[in-house]
Design goal:
The N terminus is likely disordered. The protein has a single domain, classed as Glycosyltransferase (Alpha/alpha barrel). The protein is mainly alpha-helical. Helix content is 50%, strand content 9%. The strands form 7 sheets. It has a 3-stranded antiparallel sheet with strand order 1-2-3. Strands 8-9-12 form a 3-stranded antiparallel sheet. The protein has a two-stranded antiparallel sheet with strand order 4-5. It comes from Sphingobacterium suaedae. Keywords: Signal. This is Glycosyl hydrolase 36 catalytic domain-containing protein.
Length: 435
Amino acid sequence: MMRKRHYAIVCGIAGLLTLAQAQPQIDPELRVKIRTNDKFAQVMQMAETLVRTGFTAGDGYGEVWIRDLNSFIELSTQVNGHEKIRETLLLFFKFQEANGDIPDGYIPASQAGAGYAYRSSALAPGYVAHKNTVETDQETSLVQAVSKYILATGDRTFLQQDVGGKTIDERMHDALQYLLDFRFNNEYGLLWGATTVDWGDVQPEHAWGVELDSSSHPAIDIYDNAMFVIAINNYLELTKNTKRVAYWTTIKKQITANTRKHLWDAHRKKYKPHIYLDKGSPFPNTFDEDEIYYHGGTFTAIEAGFLTRDEIRQAYRDMQENVRKAGAPSIGLTVYPPYPNGTFQNKGLSEYSYQNGGDWTWFGARMVQQLIQHGMYAEAYESIQPMVDLVVRHQGFYEWWTIDGQPAGSSSFRGAAGVLWKSIRMFQDTLTATP
């Protein structure tokens, strides 16, 4: 009983009940499939076992990364307890800079050695942090993670926790404001970052490619701006400061409108990969980048509320067609078609490798969650099957999968475990919420 009640808080079962009243009921045959799916129970148990062992992204990662923690924090809160999660989140705020900047991750100083440009904080002795500056999702990931923590625990006192003379509420505002101060393009009214593949953190100009420099090509994409609106929505649900509510409500409306105006490709019915700014594109004109479909950014845009129900359904059909043409395992396929070999100096981003067309359950399961949220239950169930099958077949949550379904990257990737666990719980709770 306590377990069910706890997860009702985690997933917002009241929201699912309200949603279900206006949406299609689950087909009786599908209800039976969900209830009797033995692999669901197996994967959930495996996920709980893995996430109970720590907070790093997975083996091969010494750091606690905020973009990863944000995707398994609900599960971690359940299996690791509130206090550990609270302290883990606080460490990110202890590394926040005066201008609101949030790092990617932190690590014990004695273990630091990956080649990042580390920074220290008097508030966090014994630790150092780093930031992949090509990204624009660290601040938004932290705000989202705090929201999920509070929804899971009811711990609203966390918002008034003092860190270096500022409350968490104030620091979340500062984090969002940092993006407007340092990553906002006035011409388009949207956030920018380095040119990367969809939600990725590798630019094409360098063999590693994680830091902005003079050779970077600034660009606007859907993922950064969708993450921003999701984080604003989360902050608006948390803060009691009326001036900030009015301010961020206005910003949210502007970002939402400008995203539709500038990034949506009405002809192709998808998002443009990039809007290039002062330096133009880093890619050769021998291929049409606008043909590339960004799966992860589209999942995130749906969560941000950017797409209509009909557009979500069309996006699902287009993604499944991309999977068919690529021969990929699931809609976790990052992009289709991939960027041609040689367009990224980092050799790990060859065609259908890593973020350039690898298959990531870490993002694919987020589409499952959005399909459930929008009452597309059959599509959600169809989408999750290959992801669950891969985990069971290879007995692990791998970071990503090759085009022929072989494991790659970290063999204990907590982000993948977290999003699959949440997706399955959403299926189970939807059964309860719908007659």
